[in-house]
Amino acid sequence: MARDARCPFDPPPPLHDLQQQAPLTRVRIWDGTEHWLVTRYEEQRELLADPRLSSDVHRAGYPRTAAASGTTRVGFILMDDPEHARLRRLVTAPFMIRRIRAMRPAVQRIVDELIDALLAGPKPVDLVEAFALPVPSLVICDLLGVPYADHDFFQANSKNLIRVSIPAQQRGEAVRNLHDYLAALLLKKAGQPGDDVLTRLARDVENGELTADDAAGIGVLLLVAGHETTANMIALGTLALLENPHQLDLLRNSDDPAMVSAAVEELLRYLNITHNGRRRVALEDIRIGETLIRAGEGVICPTDIGNRDPRAFDHPDDLDLGRDARHHTAFGFGVHQCLGQPLARMELQVVYSTLYRRIPTLRLATGVEDLPFKHDGAVYGVYELPVTW
Amino acid sequence: MKVLLDQDKCVASGQCVVAAEAVFDQRDEDGVALLLTDEPPDDQAGDVKQAAAVCPARAIRYTTD
What we know:
The complex is a heterodimer of chains A (about 400) and B (about 60).
Chain A: H1 13-21, E1 24-28, E2 34-38, H2 41-48, E3 53-54, H3 83-89, H4 97-120, E4 125-126, H5 127-132, H6 134-144, H7 151-161, H8 168-191, H9 197-206, H10 212-242, H11 245-252, H12 257-271, E5 278-282, E6 286-288, E7 291-293, E8 298-301, H13 303-306, H14 341-358, E9 363-364, E10 386-388
Parallel strand pairs in A: 2-8
Antiparallel strand pairs in A: 1-2, 3-5, 4-10, 5-8, 6-7, 9-10
Helix pairs in contact in A: 4-6, 4-14, 6-10, 7-8, 7-10, 8-9, 8-10, 10-14, 12-14
Chain B: E1 2-5, H1 15-19, E2 24-26, E3 33-35, H2 45-54, E4 60-63
Antiparallel strand pairs in B: 1-4, 2-3
């Protein structure tokens, strides 16, 4: 469902109406199948944490986002425990809070150098190309052990992978390209080990804990999710702040890490860029409030509208960097919640506390109405953000 | 306050460490949560409640007297 072009930061208006009517409603999706649409915060959290709901895209009744969904295994997202937990735990260590904190000075250096380059270069400039994409791409490449020199290749393919509107064949091709690329890198790592995640995965393959195919799939997932999402939060977050100058001033004038951290949580809640809805299928009958979800029925939880539920957040449609929004579900909820969230949070804290202070006169170089928004992707954002200062 | 942690459920999101650093830590090899104390002092109660509320795997429970 597309967002309204006039309110680019808000969930689609029909979701708002449905949320007022009832916590769950029946909806028909693109392929003609009917599913439960969950629009309220509490019910979404309840269901996303319920092990009686399956994430397995191959099960009958699963609400697919497109015809090509699930044709190739991309990491562990579209599978259930215990297989999901086993694969996920192989790569959780690098995302521990302690390790992410240790990476912070390196991320600060990357951000500072990119801003130096921005200030020394021509203007106006596209902030997506010159800053929002390079920051998380450089960070995830370093963490995974992927050569950043290949960024044109993997960024182009990632973009297609998460685009729902392009033909299934083209999407499948993007997944295969990335898969082959990671598989080749993993083979190289076996001979030239480094201190990175791909080396660990290569070792797991050698030890027989992981198939080469699954290792490449996990690599694709970490690489794509590690840069696409954060890049969109940087660019769209900047746009939202430029449109709310009083809120932007709060960030620019504060050097309190707690304030910056709260601002990041609020922007995650408010923008909720993964806007296609978390999808599940019921394995058993589940009663939630007045509603009975029957075994085999699909469930869609769009967290963008859940995070705008007035039952969970006061004045939810206001961007209020001073509020406590930590309980938002922009990273999902339940066992599938985003694995990279500590990294994403740290990157956003560094970016939001640095960019607007170092370029205090940063402003849009075009009208909001001329910006190309990503209505057609699994991750929402802007394709370009021309800025000047 | 008494805190219970189910490590089998934990998905290593680390959110408990962010919310209540004096009560939770993470295991080096896989980031699974560790309970530093199962009877934290009263002034930690708010942090523990926050940790339980944001835990995506619902692996943290607590009882209060």
